[in-house]
Specification:
Elements lengths: L12 H13 L10 E4 L5 E7 L2 E4 L20 H6 L5 E2 L10 E2 L1 H4 L9 E3 L2 H10 L3 H8 L25 E4 L5 E4 L2 E9 L4 E8 L5 E7 L8 E3 L2
Amino acid sequence: MEIKNKYRSSLRAMLLIIIISAYACEDNDQPDVAYGKVTDIEGNVYKTVVIGTQVWMAEDLRVTKYNDGTAITLITDKNNWAATSTDAFCWFSNEEAWGALYNWYAVNTGKLAPEGWHVATDEDWTELTDFLGGEEVAGGKLKKKGIDIWGDPNIGATNMVGFTSIPGGCRELDGDFTNFGGCAYYWTSTEYHPLDSWERQVFWSEARIYREHVGKEYGFSVRCVKDQ
């Protein structure tokens, strides 16, 4: 199954810097939410938020080492990305952004999350969307408000629970980058079959969140959940 491609663009480094700067200045559009924090092996600090019975990271993962200290392979070259079937990560357009993009092989190592946490499973995401009223509306309730980062009109965005979903785009099977500013794609750690795994997609153009299974070679964002 191919990912939904509703916001294709060829953003360059300058636009990336502008958008990231806006996020850095206005990263809390839900001031009434009580945030916690967690630190990864490299010292990156992430906001966390309680949603129902779960504790989620309120930021995209950006670690470049596994929790055992091993470096994750960084692939910048388009052709090398397309050819790999082992764990790897990258940054959108090879410019360091607010979160990294990982292929599913990196997710499947079980070593991406900080100790005591795990990459969200398909079941974790389903519990989250059910808590928010179902797939038809959950995407909007997860999205950061406004159009400083998300594309106009950013339909349904309320960031009701402080999850602060942001549109990190993705790296496609052929190594191209797409959809920065318009779409958020999140891996789950749950395999669908030997070629595909489950993921979630949120778009600027609607309030829905999509549950799809796609090829493991895509580069997607990652959110983690605290172990219970």
